[in-house]
Write a structure and sequence with these properties.
The protein starts with a helix and ends in a 9-residue tail after the last helix. It is built from 27 helices and 12 strands. It has 3 domains: about 190 residues, Growth Hormone, Chain: A, CATH 1.20.1250; about 250 residues, Rossmann fold, CATH 3.40.50; about 220 residues, Up-down Bundle (Growth Hormone, Chain: A). With about 750 residues, the protein is α/β, with parallel strands linked by helices. Helix 1 packs antiparallel against helix 5, helix 2 runs parallel beside helix 5 and helix 2 packs parallel to helix 20.
């Protein structure tokens, strides 16, 4: 029964973590979300410290502390999430950090107590814990995509209350009736009518009152706007906003910021002429446009430009299926744009779609695919496989002989990095740097002078499979002049700027990339952080890393010093860091293979955790626990397998690229479960050794908490290494750390 309780508590805590991330992604910019959730998970360590200190005061709290911890966990979920939801937006991260941390503190208190009290069966406890987390990562995807945010929140409360009741029954406590009453209340809350659920989900007070998001920005400009459509799923919160007085446009937003306009359209092609003066029409203003691929059509605007350019076959690929649902919901407004006979819409990742496709296109168009990235600090920590060197090679290979690849960017930073990427791709094709500018044309909507500097707004970059002809360049110039669009570079007719100097040999590619105050170095599939323009490590990550490191030193060092537990603390710290150094880049590498970040996160993580849970179960086997040996075998195998994956994953992806998604998920699960099997062994082995030492057994809650805190350090360090050096180096660092652990078999764990 205890193992079932642990699994249920683990499921609920994992789902809470994902829901928290989803809610905070809608409430904040990405870097704040990462900041808060990182600090909140650090609450696991605080829970371990509390458990240790409480045991020091009284030895008679064993079973009572477990029941109390589960009760606090159940109540803290609903308390924290309800307060976060109904609280008007506060420009104070600390408030949201405290609210987010409460369930993690309660969870840390519960789990550290469990491992301290039942340390001799730590392999079974860790098995139950990881299996619960693994299933939680699958369940949360199903919950958010099918039940929405409200019912998902209620369900984690139901799951944790059931765990509380089971433990109460096992220990024959008197709180059973009260627990049943709480469970009934939560069950009733699950079945309130859908119209009330929709109203609750739409009226997220903090979201609505946040002046930094799109709705708040509109309000600050003295315009009135309202949300007319809302849908939550595992990927985003999607809204449609209608501005009062504007009857021709609505705004589709993702997490309140990534804006895509949805235009009023009567379905008649004769109504499309007004779009021919826009910069987005330029790729369709010349040449053959019969077959078009639009990656990220959002609210359907780009479909209109393709129709205006007489495109007969238009394929749209949108990763956020809720955006597709929103456009179809307002079909009477937008002319049922996604159901026209010329149009086919697919709900998946654009890059993955291209890699699977056998089609050739006359135009491939990506317009503001990650919108509002001009505020790039919000997206710098997020990987993006759409704009890597390999991505542009994929797009080029799916163009017809005279096909066009077009990007609508946000600003000078986007534009410069895209140009550098295009130059590198053309060079890899065998086209010299001097010849490459003949394949490109660049425009901008406007240039503003601010503080003596030029600010480029919404530049358009068009690159062809063949050099531009003089006739094509002339046609582009005429279209740009008619629409009052500013040409930045057009071969033959507007030959100026950095591309002119590259063409003349005055400027090399390296000099071009290094000639900006920001980083214009092209992103790659191994380092796909396109929107990271910082030169050097992200200040946000550095702050999180050192703050949590300092917090860990302050929290744990006094106890470690008092108990003389330096060796076990080094062991559990190394495991926490090493696990995340492998887990995070492994998940990120599978994103491109599986075609969606949410699918990769949930299923790959599930495979890794379940594999680790199974490994934990077998961690007591004699073959893995010979302390007389110099090397600890499981961690050595982790290192070997991890290095093997570094060199073999790309080949595995290539050989199985045409498999169905289900088969790809199975392959991913098998690969990571093999790795996870051995990664799950060292932790319960360390707990068991501590439990067998009377002097050191009381430090188990501290070691459990330290491992959790170092996991946060490991996750931050993993992203820092990935952004600076790539996923391969991050995984290699994890392998080296596990190798270090394996070489310290006799010295690192023995707590004497």
């Amino acid at each position: 029964m205890t193992l079932v309780v642990i699994s249920l508590a683990s499921i609920s805590l994992f789902i809470y973590q994902v829901i928290l991330n989803r809610i905070y992604s809608a409430l904040f910019w990405y870097h704040y979300t990462f900041l808060i959730t990182s600090f909140a998970i650090f609450g696991l360590g605080i829970g371990g410290i509390i458990a240790y200190n409480q045991r020091q005061k009284s030895e008679n709290l064993k079973t009572h502390s477990l029941v109390k911890a589960l009760f606090l966990l159940s109540i803290s979920y609903i308390f924290s999430l309800v307060i976060i939801y109904v609280l008007p937006f506060q420009n104070n991260v600390l408030i949201y950090l405290i609210l987010a941390t409460l369930p993690f503190v309660a969870g840390g208190y519960f789990f550290s107590n469990v491992f301290e009290q039942f340390g001799k069966i730590s392999n079974k406890l860790y098995f139950a814990d990881l299996i619960g987390s693994g299933f939680g990562s699958i369940i949360v995807l199903l919950l958010l995509n099918n039940l929405g945010i409200y019912r998902s929140v209620i369900l984690i409360c139901v799951i944790s209350v059931i765990a509380w009741l089971l433990l109460t029954m096992q220990l024959k406590k008197k709180t059973l009736l009260g627990g049943i009453g709480v469970l009934i209340l939560f069950m009733l809350a699950l079945f309130i009518p859908n119209r009330y659920v929709y109203s609750i989900e739409q009226n997220f007070i903090g979201f609505i009152t946040n002046k930094t998001k799109t709705l708040g920005t509109i309000a600050k400009s003295n315009q009135k706007a309202k949300i007319v459509y809302t849908k939550w799923n595992a990927f985003s919160r999607t809204d449609v906003i209608k501005v009062e007085g504007d009857n021709d446009e609505m705004i589709v937003t993702i997490d309140g910021t990534a804006n895509a306009p949805m235009y009023r359209f009567d379905g008649k092609k004769s109504s499309l002429s007004k779009y021919k003066d826009d910069i987005e029409y330029l790729p369709f203003s010349f040449g053959n446009n019969h077959k078009t691929l639009i990656i990220g059509p959002g609210g359907g605007r780009d479909i209109l430009y393709a129709l205006a350019g007489n495109s007969k076959e238009i394929t749209g690929v949108e990763i956020n299926t809720s955006s597709i649902d929103a456009v179809r919901h307002f079909k009477e407004f937008n002319g049922d744009i996604y159901n026209r006979p010329e149009v086919k819409i697919y709900g998946e990742d654009g890059r993955n779609f291209v890699r699977k496709s056998k089609e050739k296109y006359d135009v491939i168009f990506l317009a503001l695919v990650m919108t509002n990235a001009s505020q790039n600090i919000g997206y710098a920590l997020s990987e993006n496989y759409l704009f890597t060197v390999e991505a542009l090679e994929d797009y080029r290979s799916h163009l017809t002989d005279n096909g066009k690849l077009a990007f609508l960017a946000h600003d000078k930073e986007d534009m410069s990095k895209l140009i550098a990427t295009i130059l590198r791709v053309l060079n890899k094709r065998g086209i010299s740097i001097k010849e490459a500018p003949k394949y490109m044309a660049i425009f901008t909507k406007e240039i503003q002078l601010m503080n003596g500097n030029e600010h480029i707004h919404y530049p358009m970059i068009i690159v062809k499979n063949k050099p531009f002809s003089q006739l094509e360049s002339k046609k582009l110039k005429e279209t740009a002049d008619k629409g009052k669009i500013v040409p930045l570079y057009i071969p033959y007719v507007n030959d100026k700027g950095p591309l002119y100097h590259i063409k003349q040999g005055h400027l090399t590619l390296v000099e071009f990339e290094n000639g900006f105050s920001f980083s214009a170095t092209p992103a790659t599939d191994d380092k796909p952080y396109f929107y990271d323009f910082s030169k050097g490590v992200s200040p946000v990550l550095v702050f999180i890393f050192f703050f949590i490191l300092l917090g860990s030193i302050i929290l744990f060092t006094p106890i470690i010093s008092q108990e003389k537990a330096f060796k076990p603390s080094l062991y559990f710290s190394s495991l926490g860091i090493g696990y995340m150094l492998i887990e995070i880049p492994l998940i990120q590498k599978f994103i491109l293979y599986l075609g969606h970040p949410v699918i990769a996160f949930n299923y790959v993580l599930a495979g890794l955790l379940i594999g680790s849970g199974i490994g934990a179960h077998f961690s007591n086997a004699k073959v893995f626990n010979n302390l007389s040996n110099r090397i600890y075998l499981p961690t050595l195998l982790v290192m070997v397998i991890n290095i093997g994956l570094i060199f073999s994953l790309n080949s595995i992806f290539k050989v199985t690229s045409n498999f169905s998604l289900v088969n790809k998920i199975l392959i991913a699960a098998i690969v990571v479960m093999i790795q996870g099997f051995f990664m799950g062994m060292p932790f319960p082995r360390g707990i068991k050794i501590l439990s067998e030492n009377k002097k050191k057994s009381k430090t188990i809650p501290v070691m459990w908490g330290l491992n959790g805190a170092m996991s946060v350090i490991g996750s931050v360090l993993s992203i820092m290494l990935s952004m600076e050096f790539g996923f391969t180096i991050a995984m290699l660092a994890g392998a080296i750390l596990y190798g270090f652990i394996s070489l310290q078999n006799r010295n690192l764990v023995i707590a004497k």
